[in-house]
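Hi X.,

You mentioned you wanted examples for the new student's onboarding notes, showing what a folding record looks like when two proteins sit in one file. Here is a clean example. The first protein comes first, with its sequence line followed by its structure tokens.
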Amino acid sequence: MVEKKAWAINGYLGIILILALFIGGIALVIQKILVGIPLILLAIILATGVLVVQPNKSYALVFFGSYLGTVREPGLWLSVPLAIRKGVSLRVRNFNSKTLKVNDIEGNPVEIAAVIVFRVIDTAKAIFDVEKYEEFVEIQSETALRHIATRYAYDDFEGKGFSLRGNPDEVSNELMNELQQRLDLAGVEISEARLTHLAYATEIAGAMLQRQQASAILSARQIIVEGAVGMVQMAIARIENDGVVDLDEERKAAMINNLLVSIVSERATQPVINAGTMY
């Protein structure tokens, strides 16, 4: 069902009309003119159509089971008498999902939660197309969050693709797009969707922490080794160019070995003084 505008006129003019009918009807009744009774009844019936709309609030009007339309402009209005009014807030609201335990694409159990910012943009859909749109938003948000979490790994150790931890903006955008598709049915617009909690489940948190630490150590070692090789190459080239000493292949290999051990080692190296020669 699509929202449409309901019939309504300025409420102040409506109240003046109702008072005129009511006072005129009483005056006619006092004069024992029977026409005054229908005027009084008409005034009472019209009074049921007086409607006060607060800012960021809308009312859907239902008349004997038929949807007549929605009044969403703030102010005092006179609308269809005897109609049932169903109000919906149009304000922006936050929804914090529960912390869910799901398996990522690699089968690792992770804990994940998100905050959803939304508002109603179609009153008719929010009231008539779903049972309770607040519960609908909650359930669909958790369903979409579970679906997104199962499509990515928690972390990409090889750096070849997206991950929940490494690409939070991309994951949030995909979550927002999927939520919008799910909630169009309820006339709800998603303004923002952000992950608020992301962690490995307790049962594997320790093992995954060791894996992350090992990966960090390997990356650091790789940088150190690459830097050490560059320094050794520069040192040997400088010695050969300046003619400091003539190095044969065996001496060059020994120097490379000593320099690499000295640079790469985590502890300070202890020099060994050789008083003789290598031969």
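Then the second protein repeats the pattern, sequence line and then tokens:
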Amino acid sequence: MHRLIDRLHPHLVSLLGLLLGLLIGAFAAPGAHAASQLRIGTLAPKNSLYHRQLMEVGEAWRSAQGDGAKYVIYPDGGQGGETDMARRMRIGQLQGALLSVVGLREIEPSISALQNMPLLFKSWDEVDYVREKLRPGMERKFLEKGFVVLAWGDAGWVRFFSKDAAVRPDDYRKMKFFAWAGESEQQDIMKSLGYTPVPLETSDILPSIQTGMITAVPATPYFALASQVYATAPHMLDINWAPIVGALVVTKKAWDDMSPAAQEALKTAGAKAGLQMRTKARAEVDEAVEAMKKRGLQIHTPTPEQMKEWNDLADKLYPRIRGKMVPADTFDEVMKLLKDYRAGKR
């Protein structure tokens, strides 16, 4: 009997070890995902379209993730400017952010091709076409840098709001322009063309235009209305200077901590939110302009001759942008995509 027990002993130990491992795994697996949290930063105002979409994404994720999942949004730049939020994600203070190209290019520079090429895109159809062509490669690059892209959105066309009326490029050379604090390359280019950039964070725009520190603001109509910038800068140049493009990203670490069900729910909710942001934001641009017109906004539309001056300025900007603000290979790819799209459309 003792010899039989001795022969069975190693097998009993292995079996018990296997059962113990299965039991530990069964109890540990839910807990590993239950402790996860998502803290999301954004410059978007509280209760805005973008904030509401982020809330819906959060509800979908929290429901799928289960007990213990926490979801917090910090709107209104509560976690600093966009470059600050990119840094906070890297060190784990935020798990995600809804950013424009200004913040996204801190992660992956090629994204700047969608926003930093003025007067290049003539319609939203062109923006959508180029973004979708670039999207798989862009998302792969973000993943390599440790970030998962959940949604692509935009916030309208940039227009110029100024204290004094202006319609020609030369009219703006005497003004002091708001410039993103994190975009030193853009500031250098502006200076080389005779313009005066004043680097600030978004939260500083309103007090700075009120005190005269700046006298012109490139901004979307929605932002100008929501921030009340138009009340101090009541002149708007009616040109589509560039689209404001953005994306919702989360860190790969946060993504990997989620349950498979939560990942799927987040991906689905993100895609839906991106579509809502793009569709509704574009409509809100026109609504914002009409609302500001009723409150005194003066709109200035360039003549064909004046528009040629703006296009000539853009042509001067492109060689300075290529390889400096936008990686040369991505710049060339966008140019080719637009050429192909326009040829096919005709």
